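Closing statement on the zinc ion sub-project.
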Amino acid sequence: MSERILLSNLTMLESGTPVPSQLLVADGRVEAISRGRSSALDGVQATRIDLGGALLTPGLVDLHDHLREPGQEEKETIATGTAAAARGGWTTVCAMPNTDPDPHNPELMARLLQRIASSAKVKVLPYSPITVGLTSEEPVDPEAMVDAGAVAFSNDGKGVQSAGVMYDAMRAAAHHGRPVAAHAEDNSLVRGGVINDGPKARELDLPGITGLAETVQVVRDLAIAEVTGAHYHLCHASTRQSIRALRRAQADGVRATAEASPHHLLLADADIPADDGFYKMNPPLRARCDVEAIVEGLRDGTLCAIATDNAPHTAAEKDCSFRDAAFGVITNEHTFALLYTSFVLAGRFRLDQLVHWLTEGPSDAYQLGDAGRIRVGGPADLAAFDLTREVAIDPDRFSGKGRNTPFAGRRVLGDCVFTMVDGAVVHRFTTPEPTDLTCDRKDRA
Ligand SMILES: [Zn+2]
């Protein structure tokens, strides 16, 4: 049965500028795109969805999500975590393996993929851990995990403390053509820290984590990547030194990519208002000069993606002091809106740059094919954002279980109003009254 859906009253980026467009979906794929004011698709037989002038983009691709299932369903589940992703416009998410149990053998991976098949609302690509349990030194069988469906390898949440283990993991990953994604953190430098080591730590009388905890592992890992030829991917780059090291390594031909997290772009440690666990994350919010280095790293291509590190926790785990709170924050239901408002509207990023870092950038880094792009014949994985209506971020209305965002109450434009996966609508928000007219809608009126 062929269902055809005509998405109308939307804009799409053309050479960086939103232009009025229509897009026809059939059998879960993009059948036709009509750009410009001509309406070649006006007469087609199809169910119509009016997107109210919203910006249509490829579905967003998140290289770094935490779905918590199995084992931590009180925090999130595959169903609720992917509902949250859909709410934010993400149509492909790579799920980190710090679950209980972690998917460290083909049987566990097969069970995880079954759960994903039965309850996920968006496409989920699971990571294999690098080592069993993420803490031990016992490596997984990389070949078996690739065959079982692992998109890449990561011990996210924990740094790999042994250079030898990382060396073996990268040698195997190079052989199998899969990235090793690193949460770079040398435990010997953490020293019980809960916040960035700096003036804010002293002001709040909290133990600090030096940026060196990240940087020294990044430098080590880049050296290993150079020797092994592996694709090394740095998760949530947070220090200016690690970005500088990446830039140099890339110039030397090392196969290294990196992601920025929304919270490390939006906040510095100086922005932490009080000893409030909602601002606790790992790596911690860094100094303003580190934030600027992340921004510059995206602009010059050292970093290729923005990935959420979405980390849901229960209220009890976050609504407390830094000393007691769990690490991690929620941003994925409003990532685009937060960054659009703070960076695009502020003139610091171009709109097409932001879209690239959320779509093609991550897709190309992990060679995910059609994910993150729109092409005729390709899967209809799409998202639409209302650039004209201002909303306040309200955790009580989140689709996921996690409420632990430091951005509650923040007013943003660019809310995700529509998400489609393989031609199926997985999120849709319609306003009760017409939104403000965008320029191009005014032009057409
Ligand atoms: Zn991490």
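Confidence is low (pLDDT under 50) at residues 432-445. With this model delivered, the sub-project is considered complete and its resources will be redirected to Aim 3.
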